[in-house]
Amino acid sequence: MNNNPMRKDGIFALMLTPFNEDRTIDYKAYEAYCEWQVKQGAHGMFASCGSSEMAMLTQKERLTLASIAVKHKGNIPVVATGNLEPSWDAQVEEVKRMSDTGVDGLVFVTKGYGNDEERFYSYITDLCKHTKLPIFLYEFPGYPNNKISGKVYNKLVKTGRIFGIKDTTCTVEGIKDKIDNKGDSVIHQANMPFLLESFKLGADGVMATPTTCGTAFFIRFWNAFKSGDMALAEKRYHEIMLFDMAMDSGFCASAKELCNLQGAKMNWYTRGNHSLSKSRLKQLEAFHDWCKNNELME
């Protein structure tokens, strides 16, 4: 672990992966994007995540992106997913290699074990033996049975290795179950409709797709909520909801275009089947102009 202290709470910006037209990674654009996220005020960066299209990246590409994020992180921590490979032995090697990139923490996806609590507990605790870094969990929707209970989450938090979880239950009941069992950890919200409600219940972090291109929206919300000004926090929450709805169609291509419009230059290309029509590009441009005129975006 490097000298930068790891924080549990706050706004962790999910990182996109810029591509060239041939879908190779535009690493220079990624370097500038990392620096842009820092300037947006992010409390941390989550490299090699779902929004990074990590399932479509090679292990070498994921490691390279994490290494670049570490070099351009300023004074904030970087975390990255470390257990995507298919076999156990390959995952152990991936954990070690990702730890060696200099990231401040690792993120372990639930890997489809959410419906078998005993198996999931042993899986995560066994993985933890291969790194000394703090661990966040992620209910990554890319695998079935991705959601876990508050009960098994609490059991893992008590090991002292789990700093938090990116919760994707997207229900108040599921979120509250985690919050009630969080112990000395942080519940990071990925669901925007219940963002304000979850913070009132005790969530204290965000790892959500809109942070890929709208970190400043969340920093404003965070500052308002932490100040105790609930009227302002609700206003900031409403701004986030508008932003989330504008960005969501065609994600993550739309997020890349919104970054581009704000000065974090990149193409909107993805390795998935996303595309942006001329009308959609015009729509995003109009939304950006409105945000800029209202001092919500650069």
What does this structure look like?
The chain has one domain (10-229): Aldolase class I (TIM Barrel, Alpha-Beta Barrel), CATH 3.20.20. An eight-stranded parallel β-barrel has the order 1-2-3-4-5-6-7-8, surrounded by six helices. With 298 residues, it is of the alpha/beta class. Helix 5 (150-157) runs parallel beside helix 6 (172-180) and helix 8 (211-227) packs antiparallel against helix 9 (230-248). Helix 3 (88-99) links the parallel strand 3 (78-81) and strand 4 (105-109). The chain is built from eleven helices and eight strands. The model has no long low-confidence stretch (mean pLDDT 96).
Summarize the structure.
This protein has 298 residues and is of the alpha/beta class.
Secondary-structure map:
Layout: E1 10-14, H1 27-39, E2 44-47, H2 59-71, E3 78-81, H3 88-99, E4 105-109, H4 117-128, E5 135-138, H5 150-157, E6 162-167, H6 172-180, E7 186-189, H7 195-201, E8 205-206, H8 211-227, H9 230-248, H10 253-261, H11 278-293
Parallel strand pairs: 1-2, 1-8, 2-3, 3-4, 4-5, 5-6, 6-7, 7-8
Helix pairs in contact: 4-5, 5-6, 8-9, 10-11
Q: How many whole angstroms does the radius of gyration measure?
A: 18 Å
Task: Give the biggest beta sheet.
Answer: 8 strands, parallel, barrel
- Number of separate strands: 8
- At the fourth CATH level, what is the homologous superfamily? Aldolase class I
Terminal residue distance: 34 Å
Instruction: Tell me the number of helical segments per DSSP (H or I, 4 or more residues long).
Output: 11
Q: How much helix, percentage-wise, in residues?
A: 40-55%
Shape: globular
CATH topology: TIM Barrel
Overall pLDDT, averaged?
96
CATH hierarchy class name = Alpha Beta
Number of individual domains: 1
Strand order of the largest sheet: 1-2-3-4-5-6-7-8
